[in-house]
Amino acid sequence: CFVCSQSGATITCRETGCDRSFHLPCAVEGECVTQFFHPYSAFCWEHRPVQAVETDPEDTTTCLICLDLVGDRRAYGTLVCPVCKHAWFHRECIQGQAISNGFMRFQCPLCRDKDQFRLEMHTMGIRIPKRAPSSRDRGLAELLARHSRCDASECLCPGGREQVEEEGPWQLLLCSSCAAEGTHRFCSDLRNSTSSWECNSC
User: Fold this and answer.
1) How far from the centroid of its chain's Cα atoms is residue 154's Cα?
2) Residue 121 three-state SS
3) Which of 4, 44, 68, 111 suits a disulfide with 13, CB 3.0-4.6 Å?
4) Domain containing 171: what range?
């Protein structure tokens, strides 16, 4: 094992020509990435995948999970949401959330994207168990649920405040600041080209 120098290392870097091997428990210490999906690839610190991030975190950026600073540069122990690009967190914090939430509830803590976020975290070596959320997490289901009703003072939708469509006049836009209130495009006289909206409170 190139990390602990002991025998019995059965995981080898997938990069052609690289002969580094390591134990699974040594992966984090050696800053290696092991991917928990077919074909179950593993990479040493030199050849591991890195996130395509345009900017480094600022020196005051905190992890959205533990609220400690993440540092002012990209590193193995720091990950960011590929969708909103504002949610930074420690690798061990997001791994803990993945274990707790399970595949169905695992999402970005900030923008709540699931598809791209899960794919990126999988690629970066985060193990997301394919099971229901733990009992501790089920109690938070309502807090994690995406807002799904029109809160306009007068909702004009024939199907009511709960009716939501993918596009058109009854598409629901959530407040771009708090995401706690929403409106149908038609109810707030928003054009089809409008991509963001803020509620009166914000």
Assistant:
1) 35
2) helix
3) 44
4) 147-201
Q: How many residues does the chain have?
A: 202
Measured between alpha carbons, how far is 8 from 85 in angstroms, rounded to an integer? Answer: 39
Structure tokens given for 168 = 């058109």
Contacts of 186 (CB under 8 A, 6+ apart): 156, 157, 169, 170
173: enclosing H helix or E strand: strand 172-174
Please, is 125 exposed, middle or buried when counting C-beta atoms within 10 Å of its C-beta (0-12, 13-18, 19+)? buried
Residues 11-59 have pLDDT tens digits of 999 999 999 999 999 999 999 999 998 899 999 999 999 998 878 888 8
Is residue 26 within 8 A of residue 117, CB to CB? The reply is: no
Give the total number of structural domains in the chain.
3
**134-184: per-residue pLDDT in tens?**
555 555 555 556 788 999 999 999 999 999 888 889 999 988 888 889 999
13 and 86 fall within a common domain:
no
Asked if residue 111 and residue 185 are part of one domain, the reply reads no
